[in-house]
């Protein structure tokens, strides 16, 4: 289960051998985006997610639905993008479709210390 985080404040991209539970258990609040490579909305969300993770204490992870289908099904990610917010290792909120940076920041603030 080698989760590679390039540096603090980076978006985590889960690979084939990575485990979502190991990411969300290590952080207080984690925003997970379930995406697909061909999703235009997902591609437009990426710079915003990088900004959020750079200036908050929230971890942001990206999971490719096509590579992690069982995980996507487990968390109800039936469309891309789907965002799942974890607090203290537990899923607390799910959002489907493109989101604004403000709406994601407000959601994160609700569950942050």
Automatic annotation (TrEMBL):
<protein>
    <submittedName>
        <fullName>Thioredoxin 1</fullName>
    </submittedName>
</protein>
<feature type="domain" description="Thioredoxin">
    <location>
        <begin position="1"/>
        <end position="113"/>
    </location>
</feature>
<dbReference type="InterPro" id="IPR013766">
    <property type="entry name" value="Thioredoxin_domain"/>
</dbReference>
<feature type="disulfide bond" description="Redox-active">
    <location>
        <begin position="39"/>
        <end position="42"/>
    </location>
</feature>
<keyword id="KW-0676">Redox-active center</keyword>
<dbReference type="GO" id="GO:0015035">
    <property type="term" value="F:protein-disulfide reductase activity"/>
</dbReference>
<dbReference type="InterPro" id="IPR005746">
    <property type="entry name" value="Thioredoxin"/>
</dbReference>
<dbReference type="InterPro" id="IPR017937">
    <property type="entry name" value="Thioredoxin_CS"/>
</dbReference>
<keyword id="KW-0813">Transport</keyword>
<dbReference type="Pfam" id="PF00085">
    <property type="entry name" value="Thioredoxin"/>
</dbReference>
<keyword id="KW-1015">Disulfide bond</keyword>
<keyword id="KW-0249">Electron transport</keyword>
<dbReference type="GO" id="GO:0005737">
    <property type="term" value="C:cytoplasm"/>
</dbReference>
<dbReference type="InterPro" id="IPR036249">
    <property type="entry name" value="Thioredoxin-like_sf"/>
</dbReference>
């Amino acid at each position: 289960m080698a989760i590679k985080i390039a540096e603090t404040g980076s978006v985590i991209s889960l690979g084939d051998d990575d485990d979502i539970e190991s990411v969300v258990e290590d952080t207080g609040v984690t925003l997970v985006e379930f995406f697909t490579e061909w999703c235009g909305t997902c591609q437009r969300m990426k710079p915003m997610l990088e900004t959020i993770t750079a200036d908050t204490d929230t971890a942001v992870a990206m999971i490719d639905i096509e590579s992690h289908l069982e995980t996507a099904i487990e968390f109800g990610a039936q469309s891309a993008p789907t965002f799942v917010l974890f607090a203290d290792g537990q899923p607390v909120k799910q959002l489907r479709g493109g989101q604004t940076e403000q709406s994601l920041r407000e959601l994160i603030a609700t569950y942050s210390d």
